[in-house]
Amino acid sequence: MGKNIQRNDCSAPVLIPINKTGNVYSFQFFVLIGEDIHKGLYSLYFHNCANYQLRDQSTVVNLTMVITEENRGIYLSAGEIPLPQLYFGLSLVFFSLGCFWIYVIRKKKEEAFKIHYLMGLLVFLKSFSLLFHGINYYFIAREGFHIEAWAVLFYITHLLKGALLFVTLVLIGTGWTFIKHIFTDKEKKMFIIVIPLQVLANVAEIIMEESEEGEAQHSTWREVFILVDLLCCGAILFPIVWSIRHLREASQTDGKAAVNLQKLKLFRHFYIMIVCYIYFTRIIVYLLKITLPFQYEWLDEFFKEGATLTFFILTGYNFRPTLRNPYFRLSQDDPDLEMEEVVTKTGLTEGISKTVESRNHGGNSRISQREISHEDD
């Protein structure tokens, strides 16, 4: 190997001694960036000079390169140094949010649906994913490489979290357990499409994490990730549009126009929330990443996770288990209308509702009760 060359000035080129053993060339160099004017992002390029001289034929080389990057005793770039603490803090916040959600479910157990437990599981998966991600970055900062066990745990929880997030959004968008308990053929096909696409998107993201930007597979899987992620984000909007159209038609045909209009308003708000969430995390965060100075690159992760936290809180608030939710608010202004009362108290009785008909015949009142499927709402 060639001798070390210490560089304090990055403005001029330097010749590096090269050792040759047969057809093998080896060299090494050391660069120290000690002045503020030279701090920032850098690029390392390799050129096969023989191909510039021999234009009629090309030569093939095999390059093996080992780079050790150290930043004041930490093996992270300036923009990544705050990431371990950031992930640990956000993990604690999401875990606290999940505990509070469990408290709400236990307090309102009689009004809770299966989707509420699924939402709680999603929050805890998000918390553990951030925790393992923070531990992974902690070992990278200390040792210069990640511990495979923590990396695998992060990838598993990240994969499950990503798939469960889109499943939960589609379930809420279709109104599952809230306004119906069965899926149409279109909604079933949506699950068949969205779930595999989301798994593929998470696999592509994992491969991107494990590869370098200069590798061919990194560029390929990055394009796959962007395309599949946008397809998933667009697909989850369709069930909400279908539910909005269904509620709009129902508000004009049945006798519960006020209730359906309230549900319609809630679904419209949910649609706007998802659009804003997708727009911010996919476009705004990317623009921040390419425009912020290098030492503030961690802010794109902060804003992305902050937007996710805000989205989780707003979704949980709008679809919390309570009888005051517009889903369960019934109009009782007209005694001649058929009034449907939700009687879901436990998981065993979910999907059951009670219909009470009240009619007056010459001063005599007759009340009949029957149980019907809640999907008729």
TrEMBL record:
The segments labelled Disordered in the record are 354-377
Membrane disposition: Multi-pass membrane protein
Biased composition range(s): Basic and acidic residues: 368-377
The keyword Transmembrane is assigned to this record: yes
Where does it live in the cell? Membrane
Q: Keyword set for this entry? A: Membrane, Signal, Transmembrane, Transmembrane helix
Record has Transmembrane helix as a keyword: yes
Q: Which residues cross the membrane?
A: 86-105, 117-140, 152-178, 190-208, 220-242, 270-290
Domain GOST seven transmembrane span(s) in chain numbering = 82-325
Primary location:
membrane
Question: Superkingdom of this entry's organism?
Answer: Eukaryota
> What is the name attached to this protein's record?
Protein GPR107-like
Species of the source = Limulus polyphemus (Atlantic horseshoe crab)
